[in-house]
Write a structure and sequence with these properties.
213 residues; globular; binds protoporphyrin IX containing FE; 3 helical TM bundles of succinate and fumarate reductases; mainly alpha
Length: 213
């Protein structure tokens, strides 16, 4: 674990860790969304997708442990960077100009990150650490969204996720050195498109299950 302590100790190491774990989450989100879209094919399609996933057994456990490891690094490093920035700027400027290309996404990263973490804890309680005996995953998800409070929380969380990703995605490429003036507009475009896919793809599912089936 010495390499981890060493990497997390340096500033560029921290940015690199944020970038790599963030990229991992984007990959997970793309896969998770693709799987969740089977809901539109009906309950049998969604249940058989979930069963197929669980039949992978140890591979799924390994992927879950990998996600947990990534999450711990992302949260630990992100929190450290947040406090380091606070310490470096102990007072707030009275004029808060939108200088240096700062966007709503970049300015709110720690806050949107914290909201997402709270969402993920709630989400795992809702769908992962739930008693699945005598029921199906479709019934569990459909049942949760019969509650308008959950629909509202999920739609809000997906908007927050989109704001977080709209900055995080292109920032990964900047950290990895792909901040060439020629490619950056394209990378920023892909970042916006990906965050919209996440917001609309995930965000519409609770509304669909609650009011359209
Ligand atoms: C409408 C949106 C979403 C729905 C309906 C949904 C549905 C589900 C379901 C049913 C599971 C449990 C799978 C199982 O154990 O069989 C799950 C797991 C999970 N979801 Fe979501 N999800 C949504 C959005 C999200 C988002 C936006 C994130 C991340 C920010 C996320 C992260 C996770 C994680 C980390 C797991 C645990 C994965 C595992 O342990 O295998 N989900 N989701």
């Amino acid at each position: 674990m010495n390499w981890l302590a060493g990497t997390l100790g340096s500033s560029i190491g921290k940015k690199l860790m944020m970038a790599l774990t963030g990229l991992g989450f984007c990959g997970f989100l793309a896969g998770h969304l693709a799987g969740n879209l089977t809901i539109y094919w009906g309950k049998n399609a969604f249940n058989s997708y979930a069963e197929h996933l669980h039949s992978l057994g140890p591979l799924i456990t390994l992927a879950e442990l990998g996600l947990l490891f990534f999450a711990l690094i992302h949260i630990l490093t992100g929190t450290t960077l947040f406090y380091q920035n606070l310490k470096a700027r102990p007072f707030r400027y009275s004029v808060n100009k939108n200088a240096g290309g700062r966007t709503i996404g970049s300015r709110t990263m720690p806050y949107t990150g914290f909201i997402l973490l709270s969402f993920i804890v709630l989400h795992l309680i809702n769908f992962h650490f739930v008693d699945k005996t005598g029921t199906t995953i479709y019934q569990i998800v459909h049942g949760a969204f019969a509650n308008p409070g959950y629909v509202a929380i999920y739609v809000f969380a997906m908007i927050v996720a989109a704001i977080h990703i709209s900055h995080g995605f292109w920032s990964v490429f900047q950290t990895l050195g792909a901040n060439h003036v020629k490619y950056m507009p394209f990378i920023k475009g892909v970042s916006i498109v990906f965050s919209l896919i996440v917001a609309l793809g995930f965000g519409f599912l609770p509304v669909y299950l609650a009011y359209m089936v």
